[in-house]
Amino acid sequence: MQKLPKIGLPALLLGFILIVFVSKSSINIGYGEAGVLFRTFGGGVVTDSPPLGEGFHIIAPWNKVYVYNVKQQEFFESGMQVLSSNGLEISLDVSVLYQPKYEELGLLHKTKGENYVNIVLIPQIRAVARSVVGRYTPEQLYSTKRDAIQIEIAEETIKNVDEQHIQVNAVLVRDVTLPVAIKEAIERKLRQEQEALEYEFRLEKAKQEAERQRIDAEGKATANRILSASLTAKILQEKGIEATTKLSESPNAKVIIIGSGKDGLPIILGNQ
User: Fold this and answer.
1) How many other β-carbons are positioned within 10 Å of the β-carbon of residue 131?
2) What is the structure's pLDDT at 4?
3) Domain of residue 216, residue span
4) Helix, strand or coil for residue 149?
């Protein structure tokens, strides 16, 4: 009985050491994450093999694993101050959709570290936005060139960070804010241009209508000339006789005097 405490103490100590060893030798990597292994006595950051994937892993207790989020993430930059081509200050709200390149995660950790967003991505997006916006006037930024600016910023950012082990999926220009005076001047100009276009449209429409009426009048005049040239006295007499015949067949009361009208045409008298 006196030996039990002596036997139990080493067992408890051994169990404690085992628990510490297991806790230091295992790691569980969650959904959408990956781990970069650091070998304390084996060359540091592992870059020549894929990162540790999701799930449970056993590692040497003297090594360490750095866990990264490898899902698509969003960085939002609000109120980014940039200058237009004529030196006016513009404010941009920009979102960047990005994620670390999975197969290059070890290189990213070794060269940039866990703070890679602040070290690489944010400076790049700011520099590219300033460069791209500086090519355009406030009028272009406000109206026609907004989509083009977004595409240019995305393309240049993707190109600049591609070799730095970061994948940029999209760059979205959420808002473009101009100085109030400039915005009001642009809106006035756009309204005036729209009014001018509407006025030109009305003039063109009136011109087309006048042309249509002229052509219609000329057609009628030509038809009348042709008809007048073809209406001889003989034809008129024949037409009058045809009309008289039809009227005589009508049930309405009437008196027809044959040959008493002009050029020998009949005169038709009603029942009044």
Assistant:
1) 13
2) 46
3) 188-230
4) helix
Instruction: Give CA–CA dist 72/70, Å, rounded.
Output: 7
What pTM was estimated for this model as a whole? 0.61
Cα-based distances in Å from 185 to 138, 178, 192, 208, 223:
11, 11, 11, 35, 57
CA angle 146, 149, 152 (to 5 degrees): 155
Residues 152 and 202 in one domain: no
Compute the half-sphere exposure of residue 82: CA atoms within 13 Å on the CB side of its CA. 30
105 in the same domain as 168: yes
Nearest to 176, CA basis, from 66, 94, 271, 62: 94
DSSP state of 223: H
Whether 115 and 193 map to the same domain: the answer is no
- The predicted-structure confidence for 141-162, as pLDDT tens digits, reads as follows 777 677 888 899 999 999 999 9
Distance from C-alpha of 7 to C-alpha of 171, rounded to nearest angstrom: 66
| Cα distance between residue 219 and residue 231, in whole Å | 18
Residue 183 falls within a domain, yes or no? no
Instruction: Write the DSSP string, 30-61.
Output: -TTEEEEEEETTTTEE--SSPPB-SEEEE--T
Residues facing residue 91 across a β-bridge: 81, 177
